[in-house]
Amino acid sequence: MSLTMGCQEKGNLTLVTVTGRMDAVTAPDFEKTCQALMQKGKIDIVAELSALDYISSAGLRSILSAAKKLRGKGGNLRFCGLSGMVKEVFKISGFQSMFTIVENLAEIEG
Amino acid sequence: MKRILTGIFFFLLSAAGSAAAEPVRLVLQWQHQSQFAGYYMALEKGFYRAENLDVTLIPGGAHVDPLRMIRDGQADFCTTMLSSVLGRHDRNEFVLLQQVLNRSNLTLVAWKKGRHGIDSIAAPSDLDQRRITLWDGFRPPYEAFFRRYGIDPVIIPQYYSFSLFLHRGADACCAMRYNEYHSLIQHGLRDEELTVFDFHELGVDLPEDGLFAVAETWRRRLSVCDAFVRASMKGWQYARDHRRETLDVVMRYVEEARLPANRPHMEWMLDTILQAVFPATDAGWIPGQLTEERYRKAVSILGLEGSEPAYGDFVTPGAQRGLH
Amino acid sequence: MVILLHPERSVAYINRSLFLRLALLILGGGSLVVLAIVLFNHLTMRRTLLDDQERYYTALASSSAYKFNLQLLQAQKVVDEAAALFSALPHNKGTALNLLGRILSRNPDIYGSAIALAGGQQAAGFQILYSWRAGDRMQTMERSQPEQDYQSDWFYLPYHLRKPVWTDPYYDADAGTLMVTYSAPVVDRRRVVAVITCDLSLEGLKASLSELELGRHGNPLLISRFGKIILHPRSEWVHKETLYSLAEGAQNAEDRETLLAVSRELTAKESGSLRFRQPGKRTYAWLYFGSVPLTEWKIGFLIPEEQILAPVVNLGIKTVLIALTGVLLLLVPAFFIAAAITKPLQVLVRAADRLAGGDFEAPLPADGRTDEIGRLIVAFDGMRTDLQSYISELTRTTAEKEKIASELSIAREIQHGILPKIFPPFPQRSGLDLYAMLSSAREVGGDLYDFTLLDEDRLYFCIGDVSGKGVPASLFMAVGKTLLKSTVQTLQDPAKALFHVNNELAEGNDTCMFITLFCGILDLRTNELVYANAGHNPPVLFDRDRASFLDLIFSPPLAAMPDSPYQNQRLVLPADAKLLLYTDGVTEAMNPQLELFGEERLLAFLRGQPRQTAEGCVSQLVKTVAEFAQGAEQSDDITLLCLSYGSSRPSAAGNGTSPTSLLVVTNHHAELPRLVTWLEGLQTRLEWSDDLVGQINLILEEWLVNVMSYAFDDDQLHEIEIRLWQKEKELRIEVRDDGKPFDPTTQTEPDLGLSLEERPIGGLGILFIRNSLDELRYQRQEGENVVTMVKRLETPGRELPHAET
């Protein structure tokens, strides 16, 4: 019922593993996490969404807002491990074409 | 063995030579001072001895007449001013062995604003009708100067000192650049208070100190005269090249004679005198020389044309050539 | 020695040791004060001494000069008189001898005198006559070389200057002394006819100057006109050097400047003093001087500053020595004081160290001091005793507290474990809105509430409050609640049930606990409420603009006494009206000013809550009570139960049939988790796929968030109703809200082709709704937005019997 995020540094990259549900109640947490990373100078972020069960437009809003701020600092927000409902929402919303989305982390690290 | 014998022979020879050194007395025209540095140094550094001369220096003074002393046989040589010799009646009895000071050091020092401090003395013409103290012995060049500039000053005799000038009893006084001029400065007068008429610069350029002997001496003791002149010039050259040492020697003479001259004054005098002995640039003469041209000019300045001794008689060949 | 060898260690040691710091502070402070005094004293003395010496020596120089000037003046007068006489008398030898005699006899200072005739006076019979003292007698001679005399300054200057002159000093070999001569011209008919002089020996002046007390290194100085040095400690300069020649011969520019400055000062001033660096040395000297106007000479005293300041320096050295001795003596008391202060402190420090290690037996310094240290020892001792007793007390009470805490949590678990907590409790009963909550005080009060459907149409509910607290109260509450529920289920009558339960509880009630309780049965078909009360606070009935306490017959609380009578009362619950049951934790909530929340506030609050759900009403009330308490601790349990039963509204989506499920949420985001819970429940019941749940969740969240965010302008709570029908081939959902009209079917779709930078944040919700649905309809009914959503099911859904049937 909640949203949890784990951060892991991989060189310049920061991998954020998102678990749970990203809805109107929990979505701001994602933006807050990204902002905290940005203040520490981590601006190249990859969000691992394979454990994200649910996302609503509030979640997308949070992602978009974070992405805009990151771009403003010269950073980047990328995604991997989309599946099910989340993948569908990304498709419908056009987010798929707006962001770099890969199947798994290896593609980015490679 | 042979070498040793030769050495002993030469030693004996030189010892015999020194034992037979020729006694020579030089009378100076004034008390001991830097003016005679060349003779002190020739004596001090053994230049006379090297010429086998045993030289005695006799200091002069206000009551010493060097020319009379050599004429009377009290001395062999004397230094005195060329003009002093030429101005005398018995001038034909003397010969010039060496012209030591080849330029004039005579000046006339005037209060720039007059003795009352209310008007201005800047040019020779300003001296007209002024009170001027003059040395009796040095009148000819001054009178030549007055004639040249058409000045008719009130002349007051100047004796031992320039005290009357100092007390503002006169507008100007005689001063040797190397002596009285500098004494005035040492009495607290400042250059900006004074106008100095330098005879060398004003064209009344008489040669000054020379080495003289009576003609008789020169004829009979020619080699001694030559040797003496040669050694004296060496002394002057040494003085030029070793000023500090020379000054020390001068001060020794001054102190031994208990004269009131101070060291800075003697230093000034030495520097100034040496400029008159050794020309800085091409001055038309070489040290020790009196050219015929300069002789004629001096005679003319002194107004003695016609009565002067013949150049060839008066000026010995050594002095005609200069610098031995 | 170790301290001296290792400076950094010694500094560390000093920093650690209070004793040393104190000692050093006292010493250092004392030394500084002494040093400052010595320094100040020295500087003041120095200044004063210099000033004194300046005044003294300047005055001395001036007076010496004045005395000498007087002597000169007297001699001058004698000569001037003689000159005047001579001009009037015949200029012959007799007159001259007469005058010379007169001059010498008139002034004993005069050593000799001369009369010199100017040239051209052969008739006089002499040129220059000179008389001088030879012992007691006077001798006269005619000068043998008059020409020389005429050239000398003594004649030459007055003759030409036509005025009297004092000559420069000169050494007279005949007299063997330093002389100065005054010469006056004798003027006759505007001509200088003679000069009359007198010679004065300067020995007298020299002697009187050298007799002056100028100290070992002080020397008199005589400088004639034009800066000539006549008298000076450096005899080699005398008559030889002038101030200007000295400057010229200076060794360096600095010395030269100094000497020129001295000359300038001497020439410019009549008298005064000046300090200058001695040429060739690094030390200073003072020159104090005065003037002799007649000769324009300066008489001065040359004194090295060292000598002037010697007394001050000596005194300074003595003072420093005394001060040093003082400081050394100060060492003893300083160490004593420091030791006296720090020794007990060190003992205390050791005691405190041991105390920190748990040792309470460390010895303390001897008592008996009355100062701060004494008080510190007493305080430390007191602290130690207190600490000891506190620790033993703490050990005891900790065990007790642990026991109490576990009791408290047990009581709370009993209390909460037994209460029904699923809301909405009967979702199948559309129109029934019931919400209850119990907030325990720290020490559990034993409140209770309960509700259940006795059958399909009858709802039983109650609220109660056990007297007493803690585990016994919670157990009693559990017994009472269970007993009552089963009794009501059996008897189907509130009053009878109360009577029965009362007798059950009262029997053998050794603890003397009792329960106030209100219970009722609501017939959902007729809206008739039958209720009975056992000493409980009257519930409140409220609707859009009214709130009033329920009419109650007061009967004793349960378990108070056996056979108490209880009566049923009846009431038809008006549509849209709500009933609020509460315990006295609400009305007796207290704020820090000791005011009670009270019944009036309660009624006022309820009047202002027209269109709230039961839950909204309860949570708002809890919030209001908490605000009222202003942080004061809640002393009693607060329990609330709110219920209403309205006729079910006509449904747009369900085609007249009751929905499969209903969810009512209020208009805040915090309600969203309830949506999720609701859907999860439905998934289990209706065997939905995960995909379907996700889609429905997305649709409903997007719509609800939309409504919550934009539909309401006020800050009131509003209900949003969600009804869901599961059909064979489709799923229908109807959502109602009473917000501003908003038609989702007419909204334009966002431009999905935009890049990240251009993309506005938001606007995707409606897209998702449309995208996931097969049908979307909108109606505006009676001031409400009614949105109907249809989702076709690929695999036929399990159509459940309606909840109502």
Account of the 3D structure:
The complex is a heterotrimer of chains A (110), B (324) and C (805). The mean pLDDT of chain A is 87. Chain A has a five-stranded mixed sheet. Chain A is 44% helix and 34% strand. Chain A has helices at residues 27-39, 57-72, 84-93, 95-98, 105-109; strands at 3-10, 13-22, 44-55, 76-80, 101-102. In chain A, helix 2 links the parallel strand 3 and strand 4 (76-80). Chain A has 110 residues and is α/β, with parallel strands linked by helices. Chain B folds into two domains: 23-103 and 206-321, D-Maltodextrin-Binding Protein, domain 2, CATH 3.40.190; 106-198, Periplasmic binding protein-like II (D-Maltodextrin-Binding Protein, domain 2), CATH 3.40.190.10. Chain B contains 15 helices and ten strands. Chain B has a five-stranded mixed sheet. By secondary structure, chain C is an alpha+beta fold. Chain C folds into five domains: 2-48 and 320-355, no CATH class; 89-201, Beta-Lactamase, CATH 3.30.450.20; 364-417, no CATH class; 421-645, PPM-type phosphatase domain (Phosphatase 2c, domain 1), CATH 3.60.40; 661-792, Histidine kinase-like ATPase, C-terminal domain (Heat Shock Protein 90, 2-Layer Sandwich), CATH 3.30.565.10. Chain C is 44% helix and 22% strand. In chain C, the strands form five sheets. In chain C, strands 1, 2, 3, 4, 5, 6 and 7 form a seven-stranded antiparallel sheet that branches. Chain C has a five-stranded antiparallel sheet with strand order 9-8-12-11-10, sandwiched between helices. In chain C, a hairpin with a 4-residue loop joins strand 18 (540-542) and strand 19 (547-549). In chain C, helix 2 crosses helix 3 and helix 17 runs antiparallel to helix 18. The model of chain C is unreliable at 648-656 and 799-805 (pLDDT under 50). Classes of the chains: A alpha/beta (110), B alpha/beta (324), C alpha+beta (805).
